[in-house]
Write a structure and sequence with these properties.
The protein has 234 residues and is mainly α. The chain is built from nine helices and two strands; from the N terminus they run ααααααββααα.
């Protein structure tokens, strides 16, 4: 298919925008989770719903970039491979490097197990819930995480032993235990989905990898690179 340089620029910038937006929806979700764990009892109920909305938006945007059935990274590389000779001049020595980059990127996108896990998560949880797999009552042992008989106090899980600690130490321990519970629950959900899904940190691996791929081809055409920077979020 013949595509102009201008059309290609619009297409790859669209994919880059999806990756950028996905990255920061997930960053916002992470920041909100940390704040919620710190001050669980003082936040209104809608804060938790807003936090999960950022998670779902991030996963959906990220999956768009890696979906082979729509305008994603695979299709944009195929377009570049078929049309770049009309846009730029590549000397024979550089052509070998470029062909290897294209092959390596397509091999990654077509075989990377982490991408299949991402698509599985989107299909089973967010887009098309399979009731036989999800939702599922978690079977993790909260007692092991809180190391004692836990109680629900002031809108948060705690134990009598933790509550006896000095306030600063108590809050630090509670935040750590809440994060452990959050990660354990995520791992537990992954097990009941029929196959593994990405851990939260692996979402960032995919956003950064996708941005790197986009930037590689954008640089060939002199297009400004995508930078994963957003004011107020690191």
């Amino acid at each position: 298919m013949s595509v102009s340089k201008e059309e290609f620029t619009a297409k790859i910038e669209y994919i880059g925008d999806n990756l950028y937006i996905a990255h920061f929806h997930l960053k916002i979700h992470e920041k909100m989770t940390i704040e919620l764990n710190k001050r669980l009892s003082s936040y209104p109920d809608f804060y938790g719903w807003s936090r999960m909305a950022h998670y779902e938006a991030g996963v959906l945007r990220l999956t768009k970039a890696y979906d082979n059935d729509s305008l994603g990274l695979v299709k944009i590389i195929n377009i570049f491979q078929s049309n770049h000779h009309r846009w730029i001049s590549v000397n024979p020595a550089d052509a070998k490097t470029l062909n290897k980059e294209i092959k390596d990127d397509l091999d990654f996108l077509n075989s990377e197990d982490l991408i299949q896990k991402l698509v599985h998560l989107r299909n089973k949880v967010i887009a098309h819930t399979d009731n036989q797999l999800y939702p599922h009552k978690l079977s993790l042992n909260i007692f092991e995480i809180y190391e004692g008989d836990w109680i629900y106090k002031d809108g948060r899980l705690t134990t009598n032993e933790i509550e006896k600690l000095p306030p600063n130490e108590r809050d630090e321990v509670l935040m750590q235990k809440s994060l452990e519970l959050y990660h354990a629950a995520s791992d537990e959900r992954a097990k009941v989905l029929g196959q593994e899904v990405p851990s939260f940190s692996q979402f960032y691996e995919l956003t950064e990898k996708g941005v790197g791929i986009c930037n590689r081809y954008m640089a060939r055409l002199g297009i400004d690179p995508i930078e994963l920077k957003l004011s107020g979020i690191t």
